[in-house]
Design brief:
Elements: H1 2-61, H2 65-137
Helix pairs in contact: 1-2
């Protein structure tokens, strides 16, 4: 009885340790993704601040309405180009993720087909053995 309890406790400990280790590894991955995302966000904020400061300087140095309007148009166009570039980057990322998803699906399908093929081969070998055994017993 005591041996069973010790074995059960040991199994429980090993299972719990495995779960904790897996959780910690997942947390490290999440932390790395968070750090990467945070760095990207900070970079984008710095770009926006820089653009706003350049636009502010342009407007401050403007002498009349036409120059102010020119500053606004220039920075609107810059903003539009950056937005288009961001959109293209997102689309490229989306296509890459879609391709990875399709590749994983294809790999799983290939694996299933390979498993079916091996299973069919095994079944065929078993049938052959049974037939040979039946022929030898007759």
């Amino acid at each position: 009885m005591r041996k069973r309890m010790m074995a059960g406790a040991l199994c429980l400990f090993l299972v719990a340790f495995g779960v904790v280790s897996g959780t910690q590894a997942a947390k490290r991955d999440d932390d790395a993704k968070f750090a990467e995302h945070k760095a990207k966000m900070l970079e984008q904020l710095d770009q926006r601040i820089d653009r706003a400061l350049r636009e502010k300087n342009c407007v401050q140095s403007a002498a009349d309405k036409d120059e102010v309007r020119a500053c606004q148009q220039k920075y609107r166009e810059d903003q539009r180009q950056e937005r288009d570039a961001d959109r293209q980057e997102r689309d490229a990322d989306r296509q890459e993720r879609q391709q990875l998803k399709e590749d994983r699906q294809q790999e799983r399908q290939d694996k299933r087909e390979e498993q079916r093929s091996r299973r069919d081969e095994r079944e065929e070998r078993v049938k052959e053995r049974v037939e040979r055994r039946d022929q030898t017993t007759l």
